[in-house]
Amino acid sequence: MSIHHGTLLCLGVLQMTSGGIIVFSCGTFYHVTVPLMVLGIFLGMGGLAMVVAGVCMAKKNFQVGVPGHFLLHPPTGTRFSPQQALAIQRRLDRIRREMSTDAVSTSPEPEPSLPSTPPPWTMEPPPSYDTVMKSQEHSEQRNQEHGQEINQEHSEQLNYECNEQQQFEHTECINQGYSQQV
Question: Which pTM was predicted?
Answer without folding.
Answer: 0.34
